[in-house]
Design brief:
426 residues, mainly alpha, 16 helices, 0% strand
Length: 426
């Protein structure tokens, strides 16, 4: 009986037909995405043997999102998000085909891979705000939205578990070009699912403001809504100083554990397994759970896991701490995303999510460059240790700020309940 209730609670967003279709198509596509990401980083490291170039690979893929996400957020709020998502997913498929053709048919250079990766970063800047905002239109019952966001994250983490493991095998047997080709073909699944779903007709809103003015309005909105602004600042620090630890995983696989592409794939997959467990945990939470407390506690766990992982030379033990780090890091994106989506007004949701994309996708590449450079001087294990310490410090610093906002929200809820009670009495 308990398991049955948990299953109903965990997968309640599947009551929406549109969301079930989207989930199935996106699941296939994300496995391909992780295969491509794993192959790109492994290719760069095996060709250059440089942690700085690894950081540059992350930078090339993700930093364009930092630059263009504000425009992507405005586009998401102005135009039909459904059509924007179909266009961006199709563009991502074309980018993967270009990357596959480059590696399979030409004598490519690392710089050419970086150039094509920049294209993907630009596409993602428009894709994320539109696709994430569209969840509100796909989920029929709005109380199921937090569950849909958590399931979305679990989908990504399952892909993180499967994709790198497959990628490691394909890299050894067939090469990176095949990984890129599989990713390109995987986009057919999500595009097909999008064409099958039925979204309510798009009702255009009158927008007299210029794009930059609407972008500025987004900043003003965040300033007036500290419950969202502080969470964005929190995820910005985490993205810059902590989450780029994954940039250095090829060094652990090849140098510290004396392994190959499969070793790298297993490391990524165990982080993905931990993230999947964390996503299922979040999806199983009851409505009204204290998400900000979970955010801070999991960051503390992430810091401890990274510190313990940093100097481990035993591969099985390292896999355990990698899985623990994956469990803890998952909530940083999912919980932040949930707080922002549920706390933003409908007309500002796209712009709020674009700022989230700036904080998450934009600062990680800068962090990747920073981590890659620092590791050249103090070594990879000491760099990961420093990131673990940074995670603990960020959690300690932001805890009182987040608690202050939680108390404000609790006071507002109490006031509304008192007002409702007084109306009933009258």
């Amino acid at each position: 009986m308990l398991i049955s209730r948990m299953n109903i609670n965990t997968f309640r967003a599947f009551r929406s037909r549109n969301y079930k279709l989207y989930f199935s198509g996106q699941s296939v596509s994300l496995i391909g995405t992780w295969m491509q990401r794993t192959a790109v980083y492994w290719l760069v490291y095996t060709q250059t043997h440089s942690t700085f170039m690894l950081g540059l690979a992350v930078f090339a893929t993700q930093f364009p999102s930092f630059i263009f996400s504000p425009v992507g957020g405005v586009v998401s709020d102005r135009y039909n998000r459904y059509r924007v998502t179909i266009i961006t997913q199709t563009a991502s498929m074309i980018q993967a085909f270009l990357l596959a053709a480059l590696v399979i048919f030409t004598r490519y250079t690392v710089w050419e891979i970086f150039a094509i990766s920049v294209i993907l970063g630009i596409i993602n800047a428009f894709d994320l705000p539109a696709r994430q905002s569209m969840l509100n239109e796909m989920v029929e019952k709005k109380e199921d939205l937090p569950n849909a966001i958590a399931l979305n994250s679990s989908m990504g983490k399952l892909a993180w578990l499967i994709g790198p493991a497959i990628s490691g095998i394909v890299l050894e047997k067939l090469g990176a070009g095949t990984c890129f080709l599989i990713n390109a073909l995987s986009y057919l699944a999500v595009i097909t699912s999008l064409l099958l779903i039925k979204i309510p007709p798009f009702v255009p809103h009158l927008h007299s403001n210029k794009v930059m003015k609407e972008f500025t309005e987004g900043f003003v909105y965040l300033k007036k809504t500290p419950s969202i602004g502080i969470v964005l600042l929190f995820i910005a620090f985490v993205s810059l100083f902590v989450l780029p630890f994954t940039t250095l995983l090829p060094v652990y696989a090849k140098v510290i554990f004396k392994g190959n592409a499969s070793t790298y794939g297993y490391l990524n997959s165990l982080i993905g397994l931990g993230s999947l467990v964390g996503a299922i945990f979040l999806a199983s939470l009851k409505t009204g759970a204290n998400l900000k407390n979970i955010l801070v506690v999991n960051l503390l766990i992430l810091g401890v896991a990274l510190a313990l992982f940093s100097h481990i030379t035993n591969f099985p033990i390292a896999l355990f701490f990698a899985m623990l780090a994956g469990f803890a890091m998952m909530s940083q994106t999912t919980v932040s995303n949930t707080i922002i989506q549920t706390g933003s007004s409908a007309e500002m949701r796209g712009r709020s999510l674009s700022f989230f994309a700036m904080a998450f996708f934009g600062l990680q590449p800068l962090g990747g460059l920073l981590i890659g450079t620092v590791s050249q001087y103090i070594g990879t294990p000491n760099t990961i240790l420093a990131q673990g310490i940074a995670a603990i410090l960020i959690a300690v610093i932001f805890l009182p700020l987040l608690r202050k906002e939680m108390l404000k929200e609790k006071d507002k809820t109490t006031l509304v309940e008192l007002e409702d009670t007084s109306v009933v009495i009258e």
